[in-house]
Write a structure and sequence with these properties.
mainly alpha, 75% helix, 96 residues
Length: 96
């Protein structure tokens, strides 16, 4: 595995953990716990745990479930991209 692929994976995982932390800042779990959980496990697991907690009272939801759906789909697309990147396209060639 290339050093750049590992570096790219670590950076993208860290950035996604920050994104999950920002989502958690508007919920009872808070930024710190959401960030820590997504950093220890994966950003997808951290996002699921964060979305299962209650939102803060009086917080206005602007996007509703559309924003959550777009965020989950974006993370899934990033995971597929990273898998293809780390395997060197072997998964794509095996499907053909």
């Amino acid at each position: 595995m290339s050093f750049l692929a590992v570096l790219f994976g670590l950076l993208s995982g860290s950035l996604l953990s920050v994104l999950v932390g920002i989502i958690g800042s508007r919920r009872r779990i808070g930024f710190g716990w959401a960030f820590l959980l997504s950093l220890i496990f994966t950003p997808l697991v951290g996002l699921i745990i964060t979305l299962l907690t209650d939102p803060l009272p009086g917080d206005v939801q602007r996007w509703g479930c559309i924003g959550t759906t777009v965020a989950v789909l974006g993370i899934l697309c990033l995971i597929v991209f990273l898998m293809l990147l780390l395997t060197g396209g072997a998964m794509l060639m095996a499907a053909l």
